[in-house]
Amino acid sequence: MLDKAPNGKVSDLLNALDKALSAGDVESAVDLFQADCYWRDLVTFTWNIKTMEGKDQVRDMLKARLTDTKPSNWKIADGEDASEADGITESWIQFETEVARGFGHMRLKDGRIWTLLTTMSELKGHEEPLGFDRPMGAKHGAERNRKTWKEEREAEAAELGHSRQPYCVIIGGGQGGIALGARLRQLNVPTIIIEKNERPGDSWRKRYKSLCLHDPVWYDHLPYLPFPRNWPVFSPKDKIGDWLEMYTKVMELNYWSSTECKKASYDEKTREWTVVVQRDGKEIVLKPKQLVLATGMSAKANMPKFDGMDIFKGDQHHSSQHPGPDKYKDKKAVVIGSNNSAHDICAALWEAGVDVTMVQRSTTHIVKSDSLMELGLASLYSEQAVQSGMTTAKADLIFASLPYKILHEFQIPVYNAIRERDADFYKRLEKAGFLLDYGDDDSGLFMKYLRRGSGYYIDVGASELIANGSIKLKSGVDVKKLTEHSVILSDGTELPADLVVYATGYGSMNGWAADLISREVANKVGKVWGLGSNTTKDPGPWEGEQRNMWKPTQQEALWFHGGNLHQSRHYSQFLSLQLKARMEGIPTPVYGLQKVHHLG
Ligand SMILES: Cc1cc2nc3c(=O)[nH]c(=O)nc-3n(C[C@H](O)[C@H](O)[C@H](O)COP(=O)(O)OP(=O)(O)OC[C@H]3O[C@@H](n4cnc5c(N)ncnc54)[C@H](O)[C@@H]3O)c2cc1C
Fold first, then answer.
1. Ligand 1 atom nearest to CA at 506
2. Residue of 295, 345, 512 best suited for mutating to test ligand 1, as the one with most atoms within 8 Å of CB
3. How confident is the model at residue 1 (pLDDT cuts 50, 70, 90)?
């Protein structure tokens, strides 16, 4: 028999919360929280993405936002039951605010709230046309001069950006721009996506030949249209490119390919952007109210500068420009860097018969793909999870419900278990001279990704080639200079080279703001990405959320969107709702707008 006790506990607490909040009684509401509590709000109370840590922060937020928000109807989500394990009672919850419906998650410890996640599902009166409300498509009856769907689409394409301005322009039509564009289309926010490549999906197609997604299919779905059940676990890059192209079409996005944004500026008086784009050799000026940079956090190549690069006679390029191994058979290659791209490229070069050396300057976190799938992701994103009833939406929300401040505490045991399971593998890598780390606090890959977006390789085979010496390794050294035919390392080693690949990573999205808007605006918004964890490449102070991503920035009407497929899917919901609310004139007072502590 189902134990109803957890339901009773959660309902009692929600009733008490409802009562306190409805009465404007902040102190009674705060009393329902643990001392070490976390309330993560995705847009419902704060019109921001913000975690309140501890009772004082919860109190401050409620004092500032309760009157406007007018929350009500807190209850266990329809069709759900609370559960209890290891002294924690948890439940899906639903609630409303004055302007929106919300969904969330709550964990109780000792009868009080330990973690609370509140997310905006939809704006009242602006619901997406789904299910019972889906469009008819056909227009039954008789009507003179009626337009077909195709004619309407063509008319929209002809006028939007020409005789009618879009409300929103998204620069960058990779998966980020596409997912956000799909959500905005459903919310009826006139939007144009600007993409300099010829076809949607090209940002994947143009990457090195051997690339397959490192994350599995269950993690990668786009909004509205999940991959079919026969989709491969790790999608090859050209296949994901084709999916994005198909998606762009069927989701009816206004996607301007072969169009480059040249510059953008904001007029604080008219509260309007001027966005200059080059399309088919012609300059077009767009005047949106909102501008989203979805230009990619892995798109602004970090190209190092070494003496002698100008005299090197072989091929040299950043990993993002690497064409693949085919023309380098029997040649000598040096790959500078030791993260994902470096490993993938080294392995593909070795497979093609190239003599390849990896140059590793500092430590790298390696995790075997199958271990990551089984120990790191399986409970939320796997076939087993699907079989046991886990949906993508719930998996995303469970992940979102773990506050960043303590997320590493959940991650450390996972990576300890992986280290134990793969101890031999790590030993052999170290024996080959590879410099390993597991994150500054041993919290592994996800934390590295969230904090700095780099510093790891998900092993799909290259590590074995390093361990057995097939891929040669020089570690703990830097490049001193290049000569006409070689790379000279800081320890004096000379590596003859026909090809040098700089797998040296990517710069912050802040750089895009500097390039396209101005250095002044880039400095005003500051660093993009990272949590302020005070770990390598993620300087403090603690921010509590990822800097500048999917939420208001210090520059009015400027937004950053992107991340991996999971983040792009999940956070596009909250960014699209923020944009829609602004378009509809719904007041959106931002609580706790982040301060800028670091520039680019
Ligand atoms: C080697 C590699 C492997 C990866 N593996 C994974 C993985 O397995 N799973 C995963 O989720 N992520 C992975 N990533 C991260 C990946 O980069 C992102 O998930 C994805 O590409 C981000 O999508 P995006 O739309 O934010 O950016 P991008 O795909 O980089 O798209 C940005 C777009 O902006 C366009 N653009 C830039 N400037 C302008 C301009 N001025 N005008 C017009 N257009 C412009 C670019 O042409 C580009 O198409 C990987 C990245 C790399 C480099």
1. 53
2. 295
3. very low
